[in-house]
Amino acid sequence: MLDLKRQYRPLHQELLEAVGRVLETQQFILGEQVAAFERAAAGQLGVAHAVGCSSGTDALWLALAAAGIGPGAAVITTPFSFFASTSAILRAGATPVLADIDPGTFNLSPAAAEAIVNGPRGEGVRAILPVHLYGQTADWTAFARLGKERGLKLIEDAAQAWGAEWLGVKAGGLGDAAAFSFYPTKNLSAAGDAGMVTTNSDEVAERARMLRQHGMRRRYFHDEVGWNTRMDGLQGAILQIKLKYIDGWNQLRRTVAKRYHALFHAAGLAESGPYPAHGIVLPHEVPGSRHVWHQYVIRTGRRDALRAFLAERKIGSEIYYPVPLHLQEALKGLGYAEGSFPQAERAAREVLALPIFPELREDEQQTVVSAIADFLA
Ligand SMILES: Cc1ncc(COP(=O)(O)O)c(C=O)c1O
Question: What proportion of the chain, given as a percentage, has pLDDT over 90?
């Protein structure tokens, strides 16, 4: 599914030297390596501020809290994402309100979000938290309009979307604040847990910096109750190295995605979406967006059987995500039930992520496509 060693091998020496620099300084928490990564990251994304922290989950909480979203606020988000998109809203003391997804992109549907804003729960809504799922930004033209018209904050869950763009603007600079994850499987990845908040607001950035170390502006003087969510110096040093390569890696991911597209079409397996009939529906890049293909996710009505078939042939695949958030045991209290979000529920039954990473070879992709052809035959 993912071979991280292929990325590591050519970087081996450079990474060891970066780690050595941190060991020499013995500056393990924040420090110059993290500050240098923050400056380089902000420059690459074209945002005013980047604030490193200890995970994507913490970055979501930090972005919400720094943007002033807390108790009494409702935040609209998607039921079809990783758990943290919703749990971070609860951690911030706010209330998640879920809205269904667009079946073509799997991203939060602007129309569904707008229906909530206009409905009985609309009064308490203070923010929308769209997720740029699988590496493609949510429909930002629609969310920016809605946010502006209703005075709502827009918080991006950009965990899967380093380098993605909407109309030429990079994810991380679209909303009031954004959260990135550098979990080892992400497009831009650390050697452990790490995350980052980005924003163009001086005030949000300043507050995020304070909240990531227990609400301190001055050492041992606590203005607010924050938390310990600092980035390690080692991660800052390693991420600085990888930052130099991420554009090239994302470009390779785009090449790999294009090749899948061509191979599936050549094999006559691709159906026009959004729902599969007998074959598979391929993912696509919507006009105006630059997809960075964190995942290449197909849809099929016989998903579980296909996955088992691929596993027999030693081909990796994954399901992101098998249970929509409104049906998770831990989120029962939100008051939703089976049938609340039909598009998210159907996607959870039909999606299958195929191997994709920059170093994936064409012959390996051919093997994947041939296996799927054999299954469908
Ligand atoms: C969409 C999404 N949001 C949030 C997170 C949380 O990031 P982390 O695992 O770094 O806490 C992840 C990654 O796991 C993710 O994919």
Answer: 99
Q: What's the CA angle centered on 254, arms 249 and 256, to 5 degrees?
A: 95
**pLDDT tens readout for residues 63-109:** 999 999 999 999 999 999 999 999 999 999 999 999 999 999 999 99
How close is the Cα of 82 to the center of ligand 1, in Å? 6
Amino acid at 98: L
Q: Is 159 in the pocket of ligand 1 (CB under 6 A)?
A: yes
Q: What is the CA radius of gyration of the chain?
A: 21
What are the tokens at 264?
Answer: 């599936």
181 Cα to the center of ligand 1, angstroms: 6
> 341 C-alpha vs ligand 1 centroid, how far in Å?
22
Global pTM value: 0.98
Regarding the beta carbon of 85 and ligand 1, being less than 6 Å apart is answered: yes
Q: Which atom of ligand 1 is nearest to the CA of 160?
A: 16
Q: How far is the CA of 91 from the centre of ligand 1 (A)?
A: 15
**28: its two tokens:** 């393990």
The burial of 72, by beta-carbon neighbours within 10 Å (0-12 exposed, 13-18 middle, 19 or more buried), is given as exposed
Decide if 212 contacts 230 (C-beta within 8 A). Answer: yes
Percent of the chain at pLDDT > 70 equals 100
Helix (H, G, I), strand (E, B) or coil at 136: coil
- Does 183 sit in the ligand 1 pocket, CB within 6 Å? yes
**How far apart, in whole angstroms, are the C-alpha atoms of residue 107 and residue 95?**
20
| Residue 129 near residue 89, CB atoms below 8 Å | yes
Per residue in 178-211, pLDDT (tens digit) is 999 999 999 999 999 999 999 999 999 999 999 9
